[in-house]
């Protein structure tokens, strides 16, 4: 009688012990990695989409506030020029104020921008813009760039704007900001506005955003015949008036007081 056949046991290393062979473990790890990567990608895309929606919502809210500001503080106060109103409704003032004052960007008052300088009250920006009657193709000199807001408003009317700032830091930051926001019609120079910008003159209009004790002769020389200049004149600690300077076709000057104002002083000497 034959003995029953003997069943050979596999080596202990190959007994089913709950472990997968190496190739199987590799496939499992790759599947887990792919699942994690897909989950992470979905999470990142969802987060980016949510952030984009939040940004778009923020922009809509800021635009609504800007339109309300123009209606309440500018149009209702007598500014009628269509080009000026369109520019004021378009230019994002919140981009031209420090982050700490972003919530106040569409309030009708000036705000500090550093170096003892300010961004002007929106109504005054609109008023000065309307006074010089900017139109496409005009060449306008601005003295006192600050953060670049007035230059952006002038450029939004289609004018070519040349703006000067005595503080190098402000000039450089305004240049970067205006370029980033797409205001290609604005050229920024670090310079002393008392001397104007003779190389680019004469100008159809000049807007001065700092108070001088007098009307600088260099600026009147660089004003084109039939041109207009608006400038605050007076003492820093006393009365200041916004002055309209008009040059007729023969070069004769005429001045007119417009309204009392309060501006930072016009400085001399580069900073």
How would you briefly describe this protein structure?
By secondary structure, the chain is α/β, with parallel strands linked by helices.
Folded structure, characterized:
Helices cover 37% and strands 21% of the residues. It has 271 residues and is of the alpha/beta class. It is elongated and about 100 Å long.
SS-based class: alpha/beta
Counting DSSP H or I runs of 4 or more residues, the number of helices is 6
Low-confidence stretches: 13-17
Instruction: Return the average pLDDT rounded to an integer.
Output: 90
Instruction: Indicate the overall shape.
Output: elongated
How big is the Rg? 32 Å
Main pleated-sheet profile = 7 strands, mixed
Return the string of H and E elements: HHEEHEHEHEEHEEE
Task: Record the strand order, biggest sheet.
Answer: 5-4-3-6-7-8-9
Terminal CA distance reads 116 Å
Q: How many strands?
A: 9
Helix content: 25-40%
Approximately what portion of the residues adopt beta-strand conformation?
A: 15-25%
């Amino acid at each position: 009688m034959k003995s029953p056949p003997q069943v050979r046991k596999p080596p202990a290393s190959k007994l089913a012990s709950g472990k997968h062979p190496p190739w199987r473990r590799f496939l499992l790890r790759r599947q887990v990695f792919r699942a994690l990567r897909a989950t992470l990608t979905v999470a990142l895309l969802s987060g980016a989409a949510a952030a984009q929606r939040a940004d778009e919502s923020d922009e809509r809210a800021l635009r609504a506030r800007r339109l309300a500001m123009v209606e309440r503080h500018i149009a209702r106060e007598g500014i009628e020029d269509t080009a000026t109103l369109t520019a004021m409704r378009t230019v994002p003032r919140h981009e031209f104020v420090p982050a700490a004052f972003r919530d106040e960007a569409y309030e009708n008052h000036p705000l500090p921008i550093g170096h003892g300088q300010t961004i002007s009250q929106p109504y005054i920006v609109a008023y000065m813009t309307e006074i010089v009657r900017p139109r496409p193709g005009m060449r306008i000199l601005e003295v006192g760039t600050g953060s670049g807001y007035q230059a952006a408003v002038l450029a939004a009317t289609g004018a070519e704007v040349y703006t000067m700032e005595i503080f190098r830091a402000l000039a450089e930051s305004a240049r970067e900001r205006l370029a980033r926001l797409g205001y290609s019609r604005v050229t920024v120079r670090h310079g002393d506005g008392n001397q104007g910008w003779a190389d680019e003159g004469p100008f159809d209009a000049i807007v001065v955003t700092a108070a001088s004790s007098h009307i600088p002769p260099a600026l009147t020389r660089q004003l084109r015949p039939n041109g207009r200049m608006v400038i605050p004149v007076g003492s820093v600690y006393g009365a200041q008036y916004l002055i309209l300077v008009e040059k007729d076709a023969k070069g004769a000057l005429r001045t007119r007081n417009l309204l009392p104002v309060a501006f930072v002083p016009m400085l001399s000497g580069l900073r």
